[in-house]
C-alpha cells in the first residue's frame, strides 16, 4: 500500500504555519486539583448556566425549529441590535451594516487577518501581547513587528519612531496595529487617552488601520475607559469585542465593528461558520437580563478577587518580584528577576499551581523569560491565596 504523504497536500501557507508552536502549546495538561492561576476563564460562579438553560428552553418553546436552521430565528437580528445598544452605551454608534456577529472575538481576529494579510503584509503588535492573536497573525505573515508597552499601554512614541524609520528607509508600513488598550492581556495595563489619540493620529499620518481588541473593555473596577473606536472619526478602527468574559466563552459570541466595506468582506468569508443556535439563545438570555446589574456584580467580584490576589502577593512573594496593579480585566503581570518562569512551571505544577510563562506573549520568546501571567478570574479567593503561598516558596528557593 502506498502511504499518503499528508504534508504534501497542505498549502504552502499551511506548511509554514504548521512549523509554529501548536495552538495552546503555552499550557500543558494540568494535574488534578491544580490551582489554576493560568486560566483566563470567567469565575465559574458567574457563568449564568441556569439562566442560559431557561433561555434555551424558552427559545425552543417559542420558535420551535427556527433557531435550528442556518438562518430563520428572528432572535439573530435581535442579538445584533442588543450588541449595537451595548456599543452605543460605550460611545460607539454603528449601523447594522457596520457590525458583524462572529464566533467569539477570535473568529473576528482571524477574519480580519484573513482579509487584510498576505505574506507581504506587515503587522505591528504590542510587546507583550495576547498569544492567540499572535498565533493567528503568524498563520498569515512572518512580517510581524512588536512595540513595547509600559504602565500606560502601547508606547506610541516608539511606534512613531519605528514608522518614521521604515518610511525613511523605504520599508513596508504596517497594514494594521493590533492593540488591547483596556486591561490588556497579559499585562492588565490600560492605554492612556493621550496615547489612544496619538495612535489615531499616527494611523492617519502613516495610513494604517487599528485593530482594537476590547475583550475586557467592560470589566473596569471603576469607570470604563473610552474605547478607541468611540473617538475614531476616520473609520480606521476595526474593533473586536466579545461576550466571553462577561457571559460565557462557550457560547462563542463576539463581533467586529467597522466600516461597512470591511464588514462586507469579512462577512463574505465568515459564511456559515458561526452558530445561529447560540446566537439566538444569547438573544433570549439578554432579553431577560439586567445587564448593567450583571456588570456591577462582575466588577465587584473581580475587584475583590484582584485585591485578594495582590494582598497575597505582597505577603508571600520575595521583595525582588514586581507587578502592575490592574484597574480591571482578569490578569496580573509579574516580573521575577533572575528566574526563568518556563523552567519553574514544572515545579509549580508539581506543587499544584499553574500560571502562564511570560515567553508565550512575546514575538522573541527570550524577552519573556522573567515574566509570568496570573489570572484572578477563575480560582476562588482561598485557592488563589494558597496558590500564591506555594508559588512564593518556589520562587524563594529558586532565587536562593
Ligand atoms: C485579548 C483577548 N482577545 C480575545 C479573546 C478571545 O475571546 P473570544 O472567546 O471571544 O474568542 C481573549 C480571550 O482570552 C483575549 O484575552
From TrEMBL:
Pfam families: Aminotran_1_2. Its cofactor is pyridoxal 5'-phosphate. GO terms for molecular function: pyridoxal phosphate binding; transaminase activity. Keywords: Aminotransferase, Pyridoxal phosphate, Transferase. GO terms for biological process: alpha-amino acid metabolic process. SUPFAM superfamilies: PLP-dependent transferases. It comes from the Bacteria. Residues 35-390 form the Aminotransferase class I/classII large domain. Belongs to the class-I pyridoxal-phosphate-dependent aminotransferase family. Homodimer. This is Aminotransferase. It comes from Peribacillus simplex.
